[in-house]
Amino acid sequence: MTHYDACMQAKEILPAEQTSPYRWVMALVAGILMTTSFISLTAFSIVSSSIAQTIGVGKGTLDAYGVDAFSIGLFVAFFLGHGGLFDARIRTGVLVAQIFLIVPQFIIPVAGSLEFLVALRFFQGLMIMMLALFSIQLSGWFRPSERARSLAFTLGAITLGSAAGGILSGLLSSMSWQDAYYVTGFVMLAGAIIYFVFARDPKTQAESMTKAKKARHQGAWKNPMTWIMGVVQIPVTWTLFSIGGFLPAFSEHLGYTAAKTTDLVIVWGITGFIAAFIGSIIGDRWSAKGRTNRDIFISRLRIMSIADAMMGTGALLMILIGDVSYYYLVIAVMINAFLMMLPPNYWASTGSVFPLAIMGSAAFGMGLISNSADAIGPLVSSVLVPDFGWNGVFLIMVVLAFIGVGINIAVSRMHLPLAPDSQDPELIS
Length: 429
Fold this sequence. Notes:
The chain has a single domain (18-200, 215-415), classed as MFS general substrate transporter like domains (Growth Hormone, Chain: A, Up-down Bundle), CATH 1.20.1250. It is 76% helix and 0% strand. The protein has 21 helices and no strands. The chain has helices spanning 3-13, 22-37, 39-46, 48-55, 59-76, 90-107, 114-125, 130-141, 147-171, 177-198, 203-213, 224-232, 234-253, 258-288, 293-321, 326-336, 342-348, 350-353, 359-370, 372-388, 390-412. The chain is globular. The termini are close together.
């Protein structure tokens, strides 16, 4: 069979969802929802001074506890679906995640105490389970050679939402922080409404998953790829949510004004969103040349290694030249934001790495392992800053980045127990 014939045959047997133009609507509405959701990542940090004054605690204390609680929630979130609870009910899982996010957003302005506010921030962090949910949902709507681009909408939205939080905070600066929180809450609610009006679960995938689960199959935690994939993303998750939570505090530490700090957050967020699309386009193009799941996965590992290297370079430049000039800091932040080339390729790999029967539980499993860094990274930063300053925080990021490159190279040379090539129609030889 020629390559052309193979491609034509693959197109003919693709599930209906993967040939429907509606798949791009799905990617867009998922991206909108993630953007409105991640407003919570930076909006809190930007108005933390006002919140601290209201509840009568120090700003440093509030920043540390508020960011750490949110980050621990990001880790715990992946316990919620690792048993396959939402595999064929993606929208139900998204609804649960949005309740955890939006309800606290309207309660925080009247929380009144540090303890209650910290608990609410923890629940908001649970919304990160949507990363695994969307990786499952969009893998049903998109063929392997399009999956990273589809996920760029949702994963790029992590930093785009951070930028939106900075923009909204600036626009709403004349309001009290409580009113600003209510407004951002309604923005989040609008994003959720748009998603639930237009989102559809891929029926073909849900039916196939249900059928595949009836057969006896190795569990996700017994599959070595769950652990390998979990480790691959740890350097990025450590840096992403540490930077996302503490960038405003670092900028203020360097002596830059509140306006410049807000602009810095916006630049980091928008650059990360653009980087996600650049990484996904390159990753999809490289992976399209592969004829096996191993070829596809190794192609994506290559772009993930580039992302790790740029992340480490940006973090190093922040401590070397960030205090020399605000514009040097902007350049360093933009380079660091190219870490967002990794997540779309990482989450696009689930369909190529795991058998269909365990893809859902494995996605939550690898997310649980990799997002352990969400909890540990900001906690370590909180401990290091008072005694060792910011240099130690960013040096850890640099070291982790280059460890990440080494892990990717090592994994690419391993004999990997990947999913059978036959599960993806495009991989016909």
